[in-house]
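hey can u check if this looks right to u? its 174 residues, i copy pasted from the old doc so theres a chance i mangled smth
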Amino acid sequence: MIRKFLLPFLLITTIVTTLSTISFPAEFKSSNINRILSESSIYTEEKEKEVTIKRNLFILLFLMLLTIWFLLLSRLKKDLKKSEDLLILVGRLLTEENCEELEEILVPVISFLKEDTFLIKSLADCYLKEGRFIEAAALYERISEIFRKSGFDVLSDSFKKRAEELLSREFRRG
């Protein structure tokens, strides 16, 4: 504890001793030294207040960023919950073979989620069940391209082959 105050005390003592030995103009005579030292302590107090304010602002900014982070995480969690609900709904509609409702839901969703192969395949399977082979083949082709971009060539080839089979089936039928 004493060491904390020893260095500043020695520094101030040295400054006062040095100032008293140097000849200054009239405004810096020994009678004005007390005023100068008190002003320097005011400056130090002001500096400490400034540092305290900056520290408090930093803490406030950190807490605000932390709050925003948690809000974003909670929103993401809600979005994931909605996503899970969508997947459950799609699975239920596929099981019930309710292709009309599934199409109503998935066509707009797929326009936003262009890379979601599960949803695209679900709609393609629905088209397949309804005998709409050209639409199903187009979606399988789209899935093939997504897998090819991702580097999954085996899966890509599988979906490409499936699309070709559906197209040949459609043209044999027609």
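The first helix runs from residue 2 to 21.
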